[in-house]
Structures are given as C-alpha cells and as structure tokens.
Specification:
globular; Alpha-Beta Plaits; about 20% strand; 4 domains; 4-stranded mixed beta sheet; alpha+beta; 5-stranded antiparallel beta sheet; Uridine Diphospho-n-acetylenolpyruvylglucosamine Reductase, domain 3; Uridine Diphospho-n-acetylenolpyruvylglucosamine Reductase, domain 2; 20 strands
Length: about 525
C-alpha cells in the first residue's frame, strides 16, 4: 500500500468535481495506489514499491480545465503534479499531491511537413506521432525508454535519450513553441506562439524561457503543466506505411530500400568509440548505439526461456562485446552508395567487422531505431532495472564513465545483488556530445537486492562527481532526500541548486507544484 495516505477536504474535492465532472475525478484507494506504483520506486522509498498515495486523481480535457485546477490548488495550498504516460519515477512525487492525469488530452493537433514540426498534446506517444508523421514524409526523434512514452513530457519536463538523437536531435532541444499553465495558474505561450505568429520557434522574440521551463533534465512536473508543444521533425525517406509479418512479441517489418541495418563488431572499446565518433561526424548514422551483449540477445529472443538458451551458448558474450548497432538511411540510391563506401572506410580504419545477421535481426534493429521498441522489453523481462552511472557529455568523458560504471557494477554482480550479464552499458552519440548509462537488473522482490541496488545507484553518482564527470542522476539525489543534491552535486555544477531554487520561488510562490524531483522548500 502507499507510504502516505492523505485526503482532500470535501469542499476542495467538490470544487474539482465541478471543474472536470464526476466521471473524471476519484479518491478510490485502489485507483490512487495505481498512481503511485512504478518501476524503481523501491529505490526511492526505502524498499517500498509504492510512493505517496495521491490526494485524488483528476482527468482534465482542456487547458482551461487545467488552469482552473491549478488556481484552485493555489487557493487551498494543495500540491499538484501532472503526468502523461507515467513511465518514469519522476512522474510520481514523494509528497502527497493531487495527480493531474492528462490522458484525455491525446491529440496530434498539427503536422506541418513543410516547416517540419508537429503540435501535440501530452498523451501523444512516440509511436503514434512517428506513424502519422511518416505518412507526410517527416519523422520525430525517439527515446530508448519506449515507444509508448509521451513526446511532450520528454521534450518539456523529463529527460531521455535514443539512438536517433544523432540524426533527429535531442528532446530538450527539439521543443519549439509551448503552451504552459504556470504554477500560479496563469497561461504562458512561449516563443512565436505568444505573438500569434504560430508554433515554429520557441526562442523569440526576446530572451528564451525554454531553459527555465525544462533546463537540462526537466522540472518533472514541479513548474506547472505543459498542455501543448511543437516538436521539430526531420525528413523521412521511407514508405508512408509499412507492413509487418511475424507473431507477438516479434513483428518483422520489411526493411525499406532506402535503409541499411548493420551490427558491426570492433576489436576494442577504444576502436568502437572512435568509430561511433567518426560515423556521427560524417552524418552516416540514422541511428547508432552500443548496447550490451545481453540486451542484444534479449532483443532477439521471444521469451526468457529462449534467452537463457541463447545466453548459455556464449556466442553473444564473445561476438557482441564491442559492437555498434547501426542504421543508415539515404534520400537516393546514389547517396546510399556514397554512404556505404564511407562506412566501409571507417570499418577498415578501426578493424571492425560486419556481423552477418538474418532478416529478423536486422528488422529488430530497425524497429528499435524507428520507434524505440524492444529496448525496455529486454530490461523488464528479467525483473526490474535502473541505470547508473547515467551521464551525458563528450564521448571521451563517456568512455571514462563507461569504464568506472562497469567496474562498480561488476562488484555488485559478484555479490549477487544485480544480474551478472557482462557489460550492459548503453552508449549513443548525438550532436556534439554523447550519452552513456550502465543498465543493471535487480530483483524487486528481494530486499537484499533492492538494498544493494540503492547503494549501487548512489555510489555510481558519487563516482562521477568524484571524477569530475557530468552526472545525469541529480533526480536520484533529490528523490532520496539526500543532502548530496545541495552539498556535493550543486557546488560541482555551478551551484545549479541555487538557481533552480530561485526559479521555483519566482514561478511558484505558493510552492504548490510537487517539488521532490526539482527544488524543495529548503532549496
């Protein structure tokens, strides 16, 4: 059951019901507990799988209803937190709050292929936007967290990376105009949207507020509610629709003629990283990432039984130790011919070898790149998972983080705390930087595994800070309520905690935006 259970005053509940209607508000305990149970919660709440039970759940259908709800929360000093698809622990607060579920706001409002952007509401998923966009010859980015995640939540409020960031951009830099219900209930339309000039820019006229709205990792719902957002799109050279064969959970679409899918093995970690760097610099990657042998094997298996059989052969451990999953696209046969020549030059330079794979394997790589599918399946199917170290900086810095993280993870694998699955680190290059996270799997039903995994997560973040490497896991410090958020991480990173505290105070004077994953009253 939930850690904390509080309720709203009857007059507040009635006022909320008057806003959304009796069918779209609830205080039923079974429903509320469903809003505070999420993977990874036991790492944030001393082994308990539940967070704090919401005060109630409301399902608004419009910006106007959200504005009325937020103003009501200010009047009665009720904390609130909005969520879309609710995948991340950051969507659920440590403090009891009104949960604003945005699932009724699920429309793609516009896809402008000429100016390359789409306008979405909070509950539009990456899969839905991708399939609608490719009909018009454009595509969005995606993230490794999975195809069912909210595009708007990732772009405005959270963080998450994917293998197509190298060709389609990073979520936090892809958001254009936004409609934003501020924590005090005012509606702000950022960028050209605020001047009535459309959605095409989020940075003008005047100073940009996108850095305040989301910063690096996002405010996790602590700075109000984002109700609409315009997302950048990039060209799509494939067909407008795709047919798939096969059976659940492995569907096999035919690889379009303008795409190539490769898995390339390199002799060392250093040569792999250099090949990633060069293929990104030369714009050869539609998608590319280093994934662990166990993850590659799980992506091919239909079940855990099949996975066990595949893993027992030792083939993946040996063949996929330093491999690059690589997707390439081209606007014409001539361009594809040129890109393939460039790729083979890179492979030759760094001693790589293309692994011969069948149609199913190539399709698996392609589907993962297209919509982010299968990545999460490989982690959830073996229990529960987290990733730490979790960092984003230059590729050289990420290689060092990779080495440090793997050494730490191996220490806990030998203790039996996390799964002994070799090197599970995921690495992707995009824009001028790279992303790395060491993904490890633990048993949420085993208290010793949970306790050890919590310790591993904290030590991993401390390790990055100790070596002056960028740490992507500040939320973990905050979620655990540790002073390291302020005393260690802040001074290492330009005292960011002071700045977000000032932003929080300015934008949320009544402190009604649930603060646990952003800035608390202490900050």
């Amino acid at each position: 059951m939930a850690l904390k259970a509080e309720t709203l005053k009857p007059e507040v509940y009635q006022a909320l019901e008057d806003i959304v209607g009796p069918d779209y508000i609830s205080q039923e305990p079974a429903i509320l507990d469903g809003y505070c149970f999420v993977w990874g919660n036991e790492l944030l709440h001393d082994g308990d799988k539940f967070g704090s039970r919401p005060l109630a759940v409301v399902l608004p259908a419009s910006t106007e209803e959200i504005q009325a709800i937020v103003r009501l929360c200010n009047r009665y000093r009720v904390k609130f937190k909005a969520l879309s698809t609710g995948f991340s622990s950051g969507a659920f607060g440590a403090e009891p709050a009104l949960s604003i579920d945005l699932r009724r706001m699920n429309r793609i409002l516009e896809i402008d292929e000429k100016n390359a952007y789409a306008v979405v509401e909070p509950y539009v998923s990456f899969t839905e936007l991708t399939y609608e966009a490719i009909k018009k010859g454009v595509r969005p980015y995606n993230i490794g967290a999975g195809s069912s995640c909210s595009v708007l939540a990732n772009a405005t409020s959270m963080y998450g990376d994917g293998s197509t960031n190298v060709s389609a951009g990073y979520g936090g830099r892809n958001v254009l105009g936004i409609e934003w219900v501020l924590p005090d209930g005012e509606v702000l339309r950022v960028g050209t949207l605020g001047t009535g000039s459309g959605w095409f820019s989020g940075d003008g006229p005047g100073p940009s507020l996108l850095g305040v709205a989301r910063g690096y990792t996002g405010a996790h719902g602590s700075l109000g509610v984002f109700t609409k957002a315009a997302i950048k799109l990039v060209p799509w050279y494939g067909p407008s629709t795709m047919d798939a064969s096969g059976d659940a959970p492995v569907y096999i679409p035919k690889l379009p003629e303008c795409f190539r899918a490769y898995t390339i093995a390199f002799p060392t970690r250093e040569s792999l990283y250099e090949a990633m760097r060069l293929t990104a610099e030369e714009d050869l990657q539609y998608a590319g990432s280093r994934r662990g042998p166990y993850t590659m094997a799980r992506g091919m298996a239909k079940s855990n039984t099949e996975l066990e059989e595949i893993w027992a052969t030792g083939y993946y451990q040996k063949r996929y130790a330093n491999c690059l999953g690589f997707i390439m696209d081209a606007s014409s046969p001539k361009e594809m011919e040129y890109k393939e020549k460039c790729l083979r030059k890179v492979i030759e330079q760094y001693g790589g070898e293309i692994i011969t794979e069948d149609e199913r394997a190539q399709s698996t790589r392609f589907v993962h790149a297209l919509i982010g599918a299968n990545a999460v399946k490989s982690t959830f199917s073996t229990g529960c998972f987290n990733s730490a170290p979790n960092a984003q900086e230059s590729l050289d810095a990420m290689m060092r983080a990779h080495e440090l993280g793997l050494e730490l993870k191996e220490e806990y694998a030998k203790k039996g705390v996390v799964l002994d699955d070799g090197d599970p680190s995921w690495v992707a290059v995009f824009e001028p930087s790279a992303h790395m996270e060491t993904v490890w799997r633990y048993d949420p039903a085993d208290p010793d595994s949970v306790k050890g995994a919590t310790e591993l997560a904290m030590r991993a973040s401390e390790l990055l800070l100790q070596h002056n490497l960028e740490d992507h896991s500040y939320m973990l410090f905050k979620g655990l309520g540790k002073p390291k958020h302020v005393d260690v991480a802040g001074p290492k990173c330009l005292n960011y905690h002071i700045w977000i505290g000032k932003i929080k105070k300015a934008f949320d004077p009544n402190l009604v935006g649930e603060p646990s994953c952003y800035a608390t009253a202490k900050d």
